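Re: the multi-chain job from yesterday

Posting the exact lines I submitted so nobody has to dig through the queue logs.
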Amino acid sequence: MTAVDNKTSSAPVKYSAQQRTRAERIKDHMRNEWRIYAMLLPTVVWLVVFLYKPMYGLQIAFKDYSIFRGVAASPWIGLEHFENLIGFDWSALGTADPFWTNGNQQFLRALRNTIYISMYSLLIGFPVPILLALMFNEVLNQSFKRTAQTIVYLPHFISSVIIAGIVITTFSPSVGIVNTILTWLGFEPIYFLTRPEWFRPIFIGTTIWQEAGFQSIVYLAAIAGVSPTLYESAVVDGASRWQMMWKITIPSILPTIIIMLIIRIGNMLEVSFEMIIVLYQPATYETADVVNTFIYRQGLQSGQYDFAAAAGLFNAIVAFVLVMSANAISKRYSRTSLW
Amino acid sequence: MSGVKLDSIVKAYGALQVVHGIDLNVNEKEFVVLVGPSGCGKSTTLRMIAGLEEISDGQLTIDGRVMNRVAPKDRDVAMVFQNYALYPHLNVADNIAFGLRIRKESAKTIDASIEEVGNILGLTEYMDRRPADLSGGQRQRVAMGRAIVRRPKVFLFDEPLSNLDAKLRTQMRAEIKRLHKRLGATSIYVTHDQVEAMTLADRIVVMNDGRIEQIGTPMELFLNPANAFVAGFLGAPPMNQITATIADGGNGPVAEFPGGSLALAPLPDLQNAVGKSVIVGIRPEYAQTVTEPGPGSVSCDLDLVETLGSEALLHMSLGNKPFVIRTETLGNIARLNSVNGFTADPELIKVFDADTGLALSGQTRAA
Amino acid sequence: MANMNLYSRGDKTFVIINMVLIGIFTLSTLYPFVYITAMSFSSGFAATAGKVVLTPVQATAEAYNYILSDRMFWVSYGNTFIYTIGGTLMSLAFLIPGAYALSRPQLYGRRFWNLIVAFTMWFNAGLIPFFLNMRDLGLLDSYFGIIIGFAVNGFNLILLRNFFEGVPSSFEEAARMDGANDFQVLWKVYVPLAKPAIATVALFCMVARWNGFFWAMVLLQDEDKIPLQVYLRHTIATLSDDPEFTATQLNASYSFETVSAAIIVCSIIPVLIIYPFIQKYFEKGILLGGVKE
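And the result, C-alpha cells for all chains:
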C-alpha cells in the first residue's frame, strides 16, 4: 500500500489559497476572470448613463430649474413643487393658516384618473387571460386551437398608435362600424371619443382586447405543467370536464395566478399612456388625463420641467411603494421574491 | 516523478470544510477510482484536480509541477462529465474537435485526430450526427472521444456511467477498461458505485466525510478492509456486521453470539481482546449454511429465501438482527428452507473495534 | 384525452359551447384588422358614409396611391427599419455579454450588480429627467440617440440571465478544460445553446422598436428622422383638421379614414410577415426554464 505519501518534500506550501492574502486573491481573480467584468462593463455604464444619471437629475423636482443654469446650479426651493401639486402647505403647519390648499386640480385629476383606470384594468382585465387559458385548454381540435391562439396573440405585437388608430376609426361617429350598427338599430350615433363617460370603457376594453391573449400564455404553460395522470384518474373516477376544470386545473394553476396578481398589483400604475396620448382630447381630459400624459403636457410641451419632474417623482414613489409591498407579499406567500 | 500527487489537499467554503486534507499519490498510467457515498468529497477532490474548484489548502502536483494556481486548460488534463456536456449545436466530429480548434491546431492535425479517435471509439459512422440523435452509449463515447483527442497526461472521470441503464453501464465499463489498457494514460475516476470501483480500478480510494478511509487494490480492500465503513461499503450484499463478545475458547479466541460461538483466527490482538465487545464482520459469501447447528456454528432463524438463479440469498435473523448468507443453489436448493445456522472460516472473519470501527491488526489474507 | 366519442353528453355540450365562445373571441380579435383592411381599400365616399363593414366598398387603391406617393411615408418607413434593426443589434450587443456576466457564479459582487439592474425595474426617474439627460448628452434629434438610448432593458437582461443560469455548469467547465476563455465560452457554447432565448429577446426588442412611438415623438424634431408610428400619429392628428379631408367630398376616392387605414395596414404588414417565424419562440421564451439537451 503506497497509500499515504510521506512528506519528505515538504517545502513550504505557498500555493494554498487559504494562505494568500485577500489582495493577492483578488489580483488572482482579476487576472483569471477579467473577461467577465469586461462583458459586464458596457451594460453597467449604460445603466449609469441612461437610468441612474437621470435619477441625479431628479433633484430638479426640488429646485427652481432653469435650462440655462443647468441641474446643479439651479437654486433649491424645497418641497414647493410638491406643495403646489397636492395642495399641502408645509409652512402653515403649526400656524393658524389652513395647511390644505387647493393644489393643482389638473394633477389631482390625473392622479385620480390613473388610479381609477389602473383599478378597473386590474379588476376587469386580470381574470380575462385566466378564463381564456382555461377555455383554450378545453379545445380538443388542435388546429383550431393553434389558429385561435395565433390570432389572439397578435394584437400584443401591434403598436399602441395603430391600435389607437383602429379605435378611432371603429368608433368614429360618421364612418365607424359601432355607430353604423347603432344607427341600424335605430339609435342616435354617439361621438364616443369626445364623451368623457365613454373614454374609460373604451380604453380599458381596448387594452384588454390587446393583451389578454398574450397574457394567457403564462397560464397555458401552467396548465400544461399539470400532470396528465391527475386527469386520467379523474376520468376513471367519472369526473366531467367541468368538474375537472374546477377540481384539478384551477387549483393547480392557483400559485401562478397569485404570482401574476402580485406582479400586476406591483405594476398597477403603469398605464399605457402612449395610447392615451393618441386617443384623448381636451374634451375627455376629465376622465382620460393620467399622470404621465399630464407630465408630457406640462413638462415636454409647456417646458415646466421642474414641476413636471416633481409630478413624475410623486407617481414613481407611489409605484415604488406598490412594487415593494407586492414583493413583500410575494415573499411571504411563495417564500421566493419576484426578483 | 509523473503522475498526480495530492498533498494535504483541503477544500473549505468559508468556515465549512468539506475535504479535510487528502494525501494521495496516483502513479503514471495508473487507474485510480475514488469511491464513497454521495457528499463524501470525492467529486470535489476530482474538481480540484481539474482546476474547476480552487484548492483551499495543500498542494497539487501533476507530472512534478505544482498546479494549485494553474488554469484548468493549462494542466494538461481532460475530464468526462456525468452529463457528458456535449454541445448540442455541434455534430460529433465538431464536438470532438472543439478543444483542438480552441487551441488553434492545424486543420490537418484536427482531421487526423478526429479520424483516429473515431476509429478507436467506433464512432466513424456517427460523425455528422448531433448529440440529440445519439443513444446514451454513443454520447458517452463522444464524451470520451472529446477527452482522449487532446492526449492529455491525466484523464478525469466524474461518474461518467451514472446516466446509463444497467446493461449499457456494464458494457461501457468494459470499454473504459479496454481503452485504458490501450492508451495507458493516468486516470482518476469518481463513482459511488462500488461495482465500478472494483472492476475498473488498479487501486481504489474509499472516501467518507471528506477523508480517505482506505487505499488499496480492489482485492486488498475486499479481503482486508481497514475499518467497518470500508467493509460495509464494498461488496453486495454488504458484509454482515454483528456485535459479539470475544471469549477464550480454549484453542484460541472465539466470538460469542446470541446463538452460539465461532472460532476466530489465533492472532495476538484477538487473544488480547478477550472479554471485549467487538463488531464481527462476515461476508455473505463466506458464511456457510448449517442445518443442524452444533459447536462451532451459530444458530439463527430463517426469514426468507431469495433465489437469484445460480445463487440464493438467505435472510436470517440472529438475535433480532438481520444476517444474510449468499449460497450456491445447484444441488442445494431443496435444503435451503431448512437452514437454521451458519459457520465460517476463522481466516475470513473480520473483527472490528466496537468504538473506533478499526479492524484489529494482523487480520490479513491474500486472495 | 382526444377521443370525443368517450365523452358524456354534458361534456360534449361543454366542449362545444366553449369552442363557440373561443371562436367569438377570436373573431372579435380578428375583425378590427379585417375592417381596417376593408376600409383602406374602400372609396372615401363609402367610408365617410359608414358603408364599410367587412369587405371593401367601391374598391379602390386610391388611399394607397396617396400615401405611397407621399415622400414622408417612405422616409419614415425607412427610419423605422433603421431603428428596428439598429436598435435590436445594439440591444443584443449589450444584453448578451451583460447577461452572461451576471449569470456567472464567480462574479464578485454578483448580488450588487443584479440589484443595480433590478432597481431600474422598480424605480425610474421619469419622463422629464430622462428627456433632460438625453438633451444634455446631445442625443436629441439623432438616430444614434434613439438606438443607444433604449438599448438595455432590465426585463430582457434578467430573462437572458435566467436562461444562462439554467445552462448546466458542466458546459462551461468542459469548454474551459478544452482551453476556452470566457469570450469563447460565451460565443462558441452559450450563444448557440441560448439561441431560443436570444431569439425571444431579439423579438421583444424588435417589437418594441417597431412599435416605439412616444420617445421618437419627443426626441425627434427633424421630420426626416421620424419613424412610421410618429408619421401615423401626425397623419391622424393633422389630416382630420385638413380642409381637403374634412370637406364632405361625396365622390372623393379617398378620405381621412381610408388614408389612416392604409398607413395602418402598411405598418402591420412587416409584423405579420415575421410573426409566424417568431411565434414558436415567444411562447417558449416567456417561460424560460431549463435548457433542453
